[in-house]
Amino acid sequence: MVAFWRDVAVRPFGPDGLPGSSRPLPPTSEPFVAGGRSYTWHQQLQLDEATADAVRSASELPASGEAVVPIELPCIWEQVSDEGATPSGVTEEIPEYSSCFQF
Q: Between 39 and which of 3, 32, 35, 52 could a Cys-Cys bridge form, CB atoms 3.0 to 4.6 Å apart?
C-alpha cells in the first residue's frame, strides 16, 4: 500500500502486535516479533551486499545543493485484469496521482 501524507504520526506496534497503518518499517536483517507475532515479509526488502555498499558510498558524498527537475512519468497507475472478480462500486477511472490515499 502506498500513501502520501503531509503530516503523519508514525505509530508503534501495540501490545497485540497487529499490523496497521503508519507503522515503522522493521529492520530487514531479521524477523520482527511484536506481541507474540512474528513477521518476515519485510526481509524481502533487504538490499544485496553490492547495492548496500553502493548506497553507503553514495551517502558519504557531499550534497550538491543543485535543484533537479522531477521526471514526469506517463502513467502512475496500471490497470490489472479483473477476470473472475465481482467488483462493487468500482469505476474504470484511475485516480489522479494527487489522490493516492490509504484506507
A: 32
Measured distance CA(28)–CA(41) in Å, rounded: 9
Residue 43: strand, helix, or coil: helix
**pLDDT tens-digit readout, 59-89:** 888 877 788 888 887 776 666 766 655 555 5
pTM over cut 0.70: no
| CA–CA separation, 13 and 57 (whole Å) | 32
Query: Coil, helix or strand for 34?
Result: strand
Q: Please state, in angstroms and as integers, the Cα–Cα distance from residue 59 to each residue in 25, 45, 55, 64, following that order.
A: 20, 19, 6, 12
Residue type (1 letter), 79: Q
What phi and psi, each to the nearest 5 degrees, are found at residue 29?
A: -80, -10
